[in-house]
Design brief:
Blueprint lengths: L7 H9 L3 E8 L8 E8 L4 E6 L5 H8 L11 E4 L2 E5 L2 E2 L4 H5 L1 E4 L11 H6 L8 E2 L3 E2 L3 H13 L15 H15 L3 E5 L7 H18 L2 E5 L3 H7 L2 E6 L2 E7 L5 H8 L1 H4 L4
Parallel strand pairs: 3-11, 3-12, 7-10, 10-11
Antiparallel strand pairs: 1-2, 1-4, 4-5, 5-6, 8-9, 12-13
The structure holds adenosine-5'-triphosphate (ATP).
């Protein structure tokens, strides 16, 4: 059968439908000022978005809300992931397992279980599809083993499959964490400062790996980064936060020096970012 031409309107709808839809969310811890202050954001399937901002601007808190790990304030807006409400009215939905299974998380640290092998850590990505006795004794089938090995191969870590996680360098650990999201078959990856503690070569490799996954698998990514040069090189879109607000959201070529100074203030003027 020949290819069916998509009408322009249908194409637009398909392209524009967001993977992540955040509507006016707010979060206040205790009696402090809001950490997130009426944030709205839509992320389209396949986008690779850099989330930047000074320390304390709210990046981690925003990522944790998108992951469903932290609830918005009671009157603090709502978040939809892939067309399903993830949280609303101060509550993360009860049946969040299925949605969470679509979201892969990569953090700066504490990504892996030290005493487990690289392969087992990677296989933990498949846990949502597996029966685990008492929540820990999991039997992974041959197909999942294959998926995990393939994921390790893609991030260049297959030769380390049998090593303990705590024997790896920081960059290698991050690549295993990324392999775990591939094994999970996540359609969204949220990465919180994945290269913060890495040397430049390892940082480059981790960002390249994420970028390849974004390009090949069309996985949607939101990545918080402190390094502006990496953000601008690897991410097409920049979202910049300051004191719980989004103060810039646009293509990287519009994120000019002037905007960088708006976001980072004197740090940027001193050349520290
Ligand atoms: N669980 C919490 N309880 C109280 N305050 C919190 C909590 N989590 C975050 N905060 C506060 O929220 C603010 C934003 O923190 P967050 O970690 O989101 O910032 P960030 O932009 O990710 O910073 P960094 O770049 O340093 O990681 C900070 O002032 C922090 O102290």
């Amino acid at each position: 059968m020949g290819a069916v031409a998509m009408q322009p309107d249908a194409m637009q709808t398909a392209v524009m439908h967001p993977d992540i839809s955040i509507r006016s969310i707010s979060k206040t811890f205790g009696n402090n000022r809001p950490v997130l202050n009426g944030i709205s954001l839509e992320v389209t399937p396949g986008e690779m978005v850099a989330l930047i901002g000074s320390s304390g601007s709210g990046k981690t808190t925003l990522l944790r809300h998108i992951a469903g790990l932290t609830a918005v304030d009671a009157d603090g807006g709502e978040i939809e992931v892939r067309d399903h409400v993830l949280q609303k009215g101060g509550k993360v939905i009860r049946d969040r397992g299925k949605l969470r299974a679509r979201i892969g998380l990569v953090f700066q640290q504490h990504n892996l279980i030290d005493r487990y092998s690289v392969l087992t850590n990677t296989l933990l990505g498949a846990i949502g599809r597996t029966h685990c006795l008492g929540g820990w004794l999991c039997r992974f089938n041959r197909e999942d083993q294959e998926i995990a090995r393939n994921a390790l191969s893609r991030v260049g870590m297959l030769e380390h499959a049998d090593r303990r996680a705590d024997q790896l360098s920081g960059g290698q650990q991050q690549r295993v964490a990324i392999a775990r999201t591939l094994t999970q078959q996540a359609s969204i990856i949220l990465a919180d400062e994945p290269i913060a503690s890495l040397d430049p070569a390892s940082a480059e490799r981790v960002m390249r790996t994420l970028s390849e996954i974004n390009a090949v698998d069309k996985v949607t990514m939101v990545i918080s980064l402190h390094q502006i040069d990496f953000a601008l090189r690897y991410c097409q879109r920049v979202v910049a936060m300051k004191q719980g607000h989004i103060i810039f959201d646009g293509p990287r070529d519009q994120f000019t020096r002037h905007k960088i100074v708006d976001v980072y203030g004197s740090d940027a003027e001193m050349g520290r970012v």
